[in-house]
């Protein structure tokens, strides 16, 4: 669609009184009433033979064709009765657990197996009880370091303001010490399974990982764990296999199929719960549209075309919104789309990279769409924060931008793109590329700390939307962990798509229990 917009304009300085018929909307025209383009005009001999040499990103055809996508279907509907029975048994387990350590370990296991969303009320009740008991008695569980750390992580993860007594800096010391110790253990350990788990943790922290992909990995790990609960394992496998049919993938998505699975992977990374199927489909459409527009700016378009295209899209934005929603808040969306298209690096001259780049990565645009799609409370305070870009949105988008730079900047420079954060730091400090990359990783870590603090601060946003913002950052780590996982489909991204959306988890058939 975006390419058609560019191609539809006349290429000479002819006057227009209405837009070309393929557009069907009224564009803003320059003050002289004329539009020009470097394509050349068919009625103007002077422009007819003009040849434009365009860059290429060498993107390969999509590996996910339409027939394949439409062929995906779930065979697990017959297991609904068994799943509901197992859920009730787990609910009993939660209610019967009275020892705080047992409660915390069960909650942690449910979260990592991807089952916690079924038991939100029970988990909230347990954590509130533990938090209230500790606050009233000014005591904490002191059994061991592992227990203390688990309690601290789960309470903070669920929004409780838990201090570290000696200040937040101690957490960094603890992380550095743990990282060093685990690396030494992995080097000398003969326990391959434990070493694999530690290497996984060292590769990317649990808190930074895409939840649903981590669930798929942990189910296999939990199955090999000594003392694992067979009931929890069975429910996790059945629930995961049943879950993906509710992602919305099997429904007709109604947009270009190029990079379709990557776009849908982004939407699952942002919000995976089954009740948000419509939200995922709309977010996937948005990602597909933004990807097309991004390629026009980064690769395909010339400067003259991009200036023209930007003006066209700014007039076109309302139509874009109406294709996603029946009703929208025009103020919030107008601000974000206006800033998004004015933040394109090609069209910005004198601006610091990072102040521009966290907007041009489209993080704020994605989040504001999600805000309305998950039916968040539409309060004046929340809308004002959306328009002003709250810290939560800014930090999430910053991580998105920096993770993208780490994964894609080298390839983008080869095709003539503008310098990214890594190259800017190298230019400003004289650092090597390796040092610059380390610095960007440090910035990501520091931004995560700020976002974690923002998560427990008083916020006008719902817990669901806060989760969406955090999950956008997690998804950025997932997509760019090993390079450009969005533009290059047949590497790690392919395996992740297959494991999440195509290949069910195998397990022993339990005969009539599933009928």
TrEMBL record:
CDD domains reported in the protein's UniProt record: Terpene_cyclase_plant_C1 (cd00684)
Q: Which Gene3D superfamilies match?
A: Farnesyl Diphosphate Synthase, Terpene synthase, N-terminal domain
The UniProt record lists the Terpene synthase metal-binding domain at 246-352
- Which InterPro entries does the UniProt record give? Isoprenoid_synthase_dom_sf, Terpene_cyclase_plant_C1, Terpene_synth_N, Terpene_synth_N_sf, Terpene_synthase-like, Terpene_synthase_metal-bd, Terpenoid_cyclase/PrenylTrfase
Q: Which residues form the Terpene synthase N-terminal domain?
A: 63-165
Instruction: Tell me the cofactors it needs.
Output: Mg(2+)
Would the keyword Magnesium be found if you checked this record's keyword annotation? yes
Q: Which SUPFAM superfamilies match?
A: Terpenoid cyclases/Protein prenyltransferases, Terpenoid synthases
* Heme found in the keyword field: no
Report keywords, A-Z: Coiled coil, Magnesium, Metal-binding
Which segments of the protein form a coiled coil according to its record? 69-96
Query: Which PANTHER family did the record assign?
Result: OS04G0344100 PROTEIN-RELATED, TERPENE SYNTHASE 10
Record family assignment: Belongs to the terpene synthase family.
Q: What protein am I looking at?
A: Uncharacterized protein
């Amino acid at each position: 669609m975006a390419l058609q917009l560019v191609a539809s304009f006349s290429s000479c300085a002819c006057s227009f009184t209405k837009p070309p018929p393929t557009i069907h909307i009224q564009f803003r025209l320059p003050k002289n009433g004329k539009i020009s383009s470097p394509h050349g005009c068919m009625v103007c001999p002077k422009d007819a033979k003009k040849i434009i040499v365009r860059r290429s990103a060498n993107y390969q055809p999509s590996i996910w064709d339409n027939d394949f996508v439409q062929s995906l279907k779930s065979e697990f509907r017959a297991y609904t009765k068994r799943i509901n029975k197992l859920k009730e048994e787990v609910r009993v387990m939660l209610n019967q657990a009275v020892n705080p350590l047992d409660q915390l370990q069960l909650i942690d296991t449910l979260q990592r197996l991807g089952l916690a969303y079924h038991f939100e009320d029970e988990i909230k009740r347990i954590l509130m009880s533990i938090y209230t008991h500790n606050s009233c008695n000014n005591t904490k569980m002191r059994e061991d370091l592992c227990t203390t750390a688990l309690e601290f992580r789960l309470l903070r993860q669920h929004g409780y303001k838990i201090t570290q007594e000696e200040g937040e800096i101690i957490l960094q010391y603890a992380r550095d010490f743990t990282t060093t110790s685990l690396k030494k253990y992995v080097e000398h350990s003969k326990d391959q399974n434990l070493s694999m788990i530690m290497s996984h943790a060292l590769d990317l922290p649990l808190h930074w990982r895409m939840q649903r992909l981590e669930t798929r990995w942990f189910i296999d790990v939990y199955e090999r764990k000594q003392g694992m609960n067979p009931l929890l394992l069975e429910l996790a496998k059945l629930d995961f296999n049943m879950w993906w049919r509710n992602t919305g993938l099997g429904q007709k998505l109604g947009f270009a199929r190029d990079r379709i699975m990557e776009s849908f992977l982004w939407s699952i990374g942002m919000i995976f719960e089954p009740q948000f199927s419509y939200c995922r489909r709309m977010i996937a459409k948005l990602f597909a549209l933004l990807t097309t527009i991004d390629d026009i700016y980064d690769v395909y378009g010339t400067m003259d075309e991009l200036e023209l295209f930007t003006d066209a899209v700014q007039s076109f934005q309302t139509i874009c919104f109406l294709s996603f929603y029946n009703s929208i808040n025009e103020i919030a969306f107008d601000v974000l789309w206006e800033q998004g298209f004015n933040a394109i690096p090609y069209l910005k001259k004198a601006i610091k990279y990072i102040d521009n780049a966290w907007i041009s990565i489209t993080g704020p645009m994605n989040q504001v769409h999600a805000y309305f799609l998950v039916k968040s409370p539409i309060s004046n305070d929340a809308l004002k924060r959306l328009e002003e870009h709250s810290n939560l949105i800014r930090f999430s988008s910053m991580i998105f931008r920096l993770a993208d730079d780490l994964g894609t900047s080298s390839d983008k420079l080869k095709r003539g793109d503008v310098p990214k954060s890594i190259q800017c730091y190298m230019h400003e400090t004289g650092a090597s590329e390796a040092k610059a990359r380390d610095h960007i990783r440090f910035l990501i870590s520091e931004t995560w700390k700020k976002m974690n603090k923002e998560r427990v601060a008083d916020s006008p946003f719902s817990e669901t939307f806060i989760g969406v913002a955090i999950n956008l950052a997690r998804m950025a780590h997932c997509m760019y962990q090993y390079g450009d996982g969005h533009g290059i489909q047949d590497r790690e991204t392919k395996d992740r798509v297959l494991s999440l959306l195509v290949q069910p988890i195998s397990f022993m058939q339990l005969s009539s229990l599933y009928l």
